[in-house]
């Protein structure tokens, strides 16, 4: 070996990935030659005279590099390689088979057994150095990858812990949001209002509700806050407080009269008041669409305001249907907006459906949205047997069954249905 080659060989131990080498050969002379070279390159060396002895060593130590003769009595190098690969290790070990075999099929057998490289005897020092250097690079990349995988695993475990905590909080938040709609069905004299609320996630931005000071009048609404998730859910909780059914004094839709009774403010006034309150809060970017209606149950006159919300669907007792309303600007989007009130006369047997855009904008399995006409057809073909609640649930079931991704909502879906069998007695 020349001095230049010997000097260059000293650099292979510079990588922290190569520290311990195992030399396996039944020839003591060959082991000494190989071990001498490796120690000169600052590697720690262990020697084994057979495959069985090498396996026992590997049970207690993990060599970074293995140089093993192929042809040995007892367990040959090929079998040793197979058993070496089957052992549990914290890191990868680079395995070089020393052989006089050069046939392609023999090399293939070695690769199948788990060998990384081959050297033909007698071993050339410069070639050995090059093969070990290449092995060092592979070990370095493997251990860097293992370290990154450990970091990723630890990070994923931390994220999973955080996710579990958030998921637990969101489940509790869903219970709180469900409490905003304590009743899904309520009768007002002869009439009845049924509510449907299906968030696309743990919590949603849709809200439906109803309230009444007596059996002669009722108010009900459908609201859709912009966006999805926690922020929208917080907004629905806030708006629910403004339209509280349990505490009329806190409900901006109702006003206390001199005789301590309550009456309804006009729907357009309620929309304007709500718009002013939302616009008064700096930093709040969310807005909402709303359909709010009040019904005089003595006369069947329904007055409503439509603020950026889908047109309500009036289903007449004779089976005809029509979309009603005059549109309007969403609440909280622009300050100083005025709203226009609409009115419709209900007759016995009529039903009035308020709904969020989760219905008409739902992506169906034909690649198109349900749209308004699809909603009309869905409402007309859904059996109605005198139960508004069953009707809404059946409508939603039919919608979910024919979605592009069945059961996977892309938006919150909600609805409120008024059944008007006839005027209440005065």
TrEMBL record:
Classification lineage: Bacteria, Pseudomonadati, Pseudomonadota, Alphaproteobacteria, Rhodobacterales
Highest taxon of the lineage: Bacteria
Presence of keyword Metal-binding: no
InterPro entries, alphabetized: Bact_Sigma-Reg (IPR052016), CheY-like_superfamily (IPR011006), PPM-type-like_dom_sf (IPR036457), PPM-type_phosphatase-like_dom (IPR001932), Sig_transdc_resp-reg_receiver (IPR001789)
GO biological process: phosphorelay signal transduction system
Modified sites of kind 4-aspartylphosphate: 69
Keyword Transmembrane: no
Keywords from the UniProt entry: Hydrolase, Phosphoprotein
Protein name, UniProt field: Sigma-B regulation protein RsbU (Phosphoserine phosphatase)
GO molecular function: phosphatase activity
